[in-house]
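Possible regression after last week's pipeline update?

I re-ran a chain I had predicted before the update to compare outputs. Posting the input and the new output here so someone can diff against the archived version. Not blocking, just want to make sure nothing changed silently.
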Amino acid sequence: MAALRRFATAFLLLFVSLVHSVEPAAPHVRVVEHFIAAFNAHDSSAMSVLVADDVEWLSIANGRISVETKGKPALVSSMDAYFKSCPTCQSALSRIISTPDRVSAVEIASWQGTTGPRSQRGLSVYEFSAGLIHRVYYFPAEK
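New output (post-update):
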C-alpha cells in the first residue's frame, strides 16, 4: 500500500509539473523575450520601447552593485556602443523563472572571438513597473 501511495504521489507531482510547463508565458516573460530579440537584432530603439524612462541597468559583482546606465537615452547610447564594439554578440535565455514583478533567467551570451566561437553564462533579473522593464540586474558571467 505504501508503495502504491509513493507511486501515486510521484505520478501526481510529474503530472502537475508537466501541466505547469505548458502554461502560456507570463506577460513579463514575453517582454523579456522581445527585449532579447531586439538585442539580437542590435536594435537599441526596439529595446527602448520595452523599458521605463528611468530604467536602470545594474551589475552585481564582488558584493557591490554598479549602475551601468540610468535612463532610456543612456541605455540606447550604451547599447549602440556595445553593438558597435561587438557586432557578432547574441544572447539566449535559459531557465526562465517569473514572479508577478520579476523575470530571472540564465542568459547565454555568444560571439565570434579571434580564436573562434565564444560564450558565457550569467544570471539576469528583470524588474517590472507598469508593464515595462524598470531595472535589469546582471550577475558575474560564468564561462
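Follow-up from reviewer: compared with the archived run. Residues 25-138 form a domain with the Nuclear Transport Factor 2; Chain: A, fold (CATH 3.10.450.50). Marking as no regression found.
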